[in-house]
Design brief:
With 171 residues, the chain is mainly beta. It is built from 2 helices and 13 strands.
Length: 171
């Protein structure tokens, strides 16, 4: 299977082959139980989805200690593995790596956000923003907002995290 490793510390994009996605985590500096998977883009041509694996708290690392890159208009930090998935969600070869933009530092990231080249990362529950890059994460604020959002489920609302509906009470 073909994957891509993004290394923002060296500003490199490297195609690699492995039997399983998890086989390349070490090469990207990732640990199996500390990752998040995300979807970056969907291809109309191949019907495949471009996916990414990153350290789950990479955007919460203090900006002076993190290395950044973007794909499409999304910001990421630290090493990453890119892969493709088909319509059924099965991992398939990532034949063509996407365009990756690397940033020297947080100031360059901020300029890209201000120019509209990338979207400022946020964490929100039902529209209530509890964190935005480059602020440090306030765990107590985050948990309180999540409790409020979960209690809204009893009122027939949905739990929406960022731009994804996680649970919905159709009551």
């Amino acid at each position: 299977m073909q994957f891509v490793i993004v290394d923002p510390a060296r500003a490199t994009v490297e195609r690699v082959e492995a039997n399983e996605l998890t086989d390349v985590y070490d090469q990207a500096g990732l640990r199996r139980n500390s990752v998040d998977h995300g979807t970056i883009a969907w291809s109309f041509i191949s019907s495949h989805v471009l996916c990414i694996v990153v350290y789950e708290y990479s955007l919460f690392i203090p900006p002076d200690k993190a290395r950044y890159f973007s794909i499409c208009n999304r910001l990421f930090a630290g090493g990453a593995v890119l892969y493709a998935a088909d319509e059924a969600g099965e991992t398939v070869d990532l034949l063509v790596p996407p365009s990756v933009m690397f940033y020297r530092d947080a100031a360059e990231v901020e300029r890209a956000i201000q120019a509209g080249n990338i979207i400022r990362p946020i964490k929100a529950y039902n529209g209530e923003v509890v964190w935005q890059w480059p602020e440090p994460m306030d765990v107590a604020r985050d948990q309180a907002a999540l409790r409020r959002a979960l209690s809204d489920l009893g009122d027939g609302l949905a739990l929406q995290v960022d731009d994804t509906i996680i649970m919905e009470n159709k009551g």
